[in-house]
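Structure tokens please, single chain.
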Amino acid sequence: MKRAELIDKYSKLLHLKNYSHKTEKAYLHHLKLFLDYISKSKISSVDSKILLDYFNYLKQTRKFSYSAMKQSLASVRFLFLNVLKKEIDFDFFVKMKKPNSLPNILTVEEMKKIINSITNLKHRAIISTIYSCGLRISEAVNLKINDIDSSAMTVKIVNAKGRNDRIVMLSEKLLSLLREYFKEYKPKVYLFEGQKCEKYSSRSIQQIFNNAVKKVGIKKKVTVHSLRHSFASHLLDNGTDIRFIQELLGHKHLSTTQIYTHINPVSVKKIKSPFDNI
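Here you go.
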């Protein structure tokens, strides 16, 4: 099968199996990397040794991260099992030790500074919505006007990661801000629109956030996704059951949510040392 034909079949099968657009894009990227490796190495037949060499090359030479390695394994696995339908003696589910790194969390005070520093009404509404609802940036740009239910005080996140829908709470304060924003900008379809009524750019949101962080002098390494991490951490710090947080974040497994059970600096300050009782 020729390269173009293989990629086309691969793409169509991903779509047919209802993979998300983001996953399709990632899988196709890793497929092309694999095909390039095979072509440049002039390999005529792929066996388990070739696959082991390839993934070792990604890890050792290309310095792929844990998540990139997982995606690459899944992409090549899809190629053999679904496209080529070829059995191969290789463990695509090889267990890799996941880095035990904790996300950087913004404190409530830092969140206040960031949001209050944003003077543009639309920009403030976007950042506030992401934090208030614990959204991924892709979920924020895909929000539509009718996803906001002011009578039920909920926000519907449609076709999120894993192609699942979920419901999150709508803050009274956020609703007031969104009404003010809506009155001025009058979006047509998407809640946050760019030019020609198209969805707002993810890159623009990142830039808004980066500018605000720099403006208020926060030095820790944070991204727009840190708003989601902070949302979860602040809920946990306020005593919210972790199972509710799991639902709000749309995590399939509770173990994913349990990363937020770490103790952040604000919580540490609230704990009294036993030395004080001596």
